[in-house]
Amino acid sequence: MSFTTLGMVLGFFGGVGLVVAGTGVPLLRRVRLADRLTPYLRDAPKPSRLLAGRTPSLGALGRLARPVLVEMAGIADRLVGGSRSVRRRQLALGVPVNVEEFRIEQVLWAGAGALLGAFSGVLLGSLAGEVSMVAVLLVAFSAALAGFLGRDWWLSAQVHRRTELILAEFPVIADLLALAVTAGEAPAPALERVCRMCRGELSAELSRALAEARAGASLPAALEAVAQRTTIDALSRFVDGILVALERGTPLAAVLRAQAADVREARKRALLATGGRREIAMLVPVVFLILPVTVLFALYPGLVSITLLTR
């Protein structure tokens, strides 16, 4: 790396440091609502740490960098938007809703991507014999953007995987609940029995609903909250059947068996559709790899013979 490139890198980071230091000056700092309310709430008792959610700790470095990360997360949230989508997916994932922490994770992923992209750009430039600062910045920016969007994609992938697990668990829980109701138990005790017997995402959601009911909420409202969090049609019909049985006393076992059968049929159709798509995908290596090699092996001896005869 030449002295000119080194000077450009040091000047860039020095300029970023001056900008960060300048924005932190009290005269230039934007006054937040929390800063205005803090003097009036200073004597208020702090809530118990047992009620606070668990947040990842990065030690002293994390405490020092957190204000900068929070500010950058706020800027990213204003630029990107979509806070409602993030809340909906976090609810569907079953984690505490915290958009600010998610934006901080996106900023950290973007920073890691930028460092990795800059290192890759400098390494490739060194191997090529010339390091272009513009190319390094473009690679770093592209990697940062990929990291920022990759965290959002990973959240969607986690929600999709959890939905698949819930759908796979649903027929078993519906059948067990139908057996318990057929044996003479009421819907609420039957739910408690099934939740004690099963371990999975759906049983965890139903256990959470029962815990909310024991804490003072009504069981129908807690079950409706489960349907709203997961946003799965089959689970919504399942909850509606339980609510109708609780409110009107209608027979529940046949409805649950029918819903379990419907979910199994839907899973079969999804597997058949996935198999059809995989068959089409399997044609790609056959057509573009195996078939050309086979044709080459069949034609190469003839081409060699023709070449020798023409000499």
Automatic annotation (TrEMBL):
- Keywords in alphabetical order: Cell membrane, Membrane, Transmembrane, Transmembrane helix
Q: Does the keyword Membrane apply?
A: yes
Record field: transmembrane: 6-28, 107-128, 134-154, 280-300
Domain Type II secretion system protein GspF, residue spans: 174-298
Q: Where in the cell is it found?
A: Cell membrane
Please give the Pfam families that the UniProt record associates with this protein. Answer: T2SSF
Name of the molecule in the record: Type II secretion system F family protein
Species per Swiss-Prot/TrEMBL record? Fodinicola feengrottensis
